[in-house]
TrEMBL record:
Pfam families linked to this entry: TetR_N
DNA-binding region(s) from the entry: 35-54
UniProt keyword annotations, A-Z: DNA-binding, Transcription, Transcription regulation
Name of protein: TetR/AcrR family transcriptional regulator
């Protein structure tokens, strides 16, 4: 492996170590009661190292945030020939439900409670939802060749991201109510079909590759 590859792997290992130790502390004591200095000590790194990898404390807990924000746009960019944005997103979401993917909200009760107990984490999660919608809107505009003043991509993104937000909140609600992953996945499969079917009349033929 090249020196550059080894360096990248070491950086990723450090990032994962910091995130892992931070999550342990957050789950044990609550997000708002843990300091960056305490995370650094637990991960055996300097405080500056923590902030270099995670400029915001909230992102230590929500370390899949970047993946979350890019997820919908990436699915649309990778859709199959002849497939609409709606169809691609529905297919991918059903697969994520079956896999109980943490990115869509399958995080377990302790993690879900940690988020909802913290106003800072709840606010950061809302920002991620907003950023994901905006990223999807830009991708839809690019994929459809929309003019700069065409509002259609933003309207479509609001609907598509809105469905994902509702389903995320439903997973969170059921998790906090004590349901296990299998129960939630069974319920979400039906909810997913209902939610995406509601968008079919408007978006079924939109952004077809």
């Amino acid at each position: 492996m090249s020196t550059q590859g080894l360096r990248a792997r070491k950086k990723q290992q450090t990032r994962e170590q910091i995130s892992h130790r931070a999550t342990e502390l957050f789950l044990e004591r609550g997000f708002d009661k843990v300091t960056i200095a305490e995370v650094a000590a637990a991960a055996d790194v300097a405080k500056m190292t923590v902030t270099n990898y995670f400029p915001r404390k909230e992102d230590l807990a929500l370390d899949l945030g970047a993946i979350f924000v890019e997820q919908l746009a990436a699915i649309v960019r990778d859709r199959a020939p002849g497939q609409s944005a709606l169809a691609a997103l529905r297919e991918a979401y059903l697969a994520a439900v079956a896999a109980q993917d943490p990115v869509i909200g399958f995080s377990g009760a302790p993690f879900a409670k940690m988020i909802t107990d913290s106003a800072a984490l709840t606010a950061r999660l809302r920002e991620f939802h907003d950023d994901r919608e905006a990223t999807l809107a830009r991708t839809l505009a690019d994929e459809t060749g929309a003019a700069p003043d065409d509002i259609t991509p933003r309207v479509a993104a609001a609907q598509l991201a809105g469905v994902h937000r509702v389903l995320f909140e439903e997973i969170l609600r059921r998790t906090l109510a004590g349901q296990d992953g299998s129960e939630i996945a069974a319920a979400l499969t039906g909810y997913t079909e209902t939610a995406f079917a509601a968008l079919e009349p408007a978006l079924g033929g939109y952004a077809v590759r």
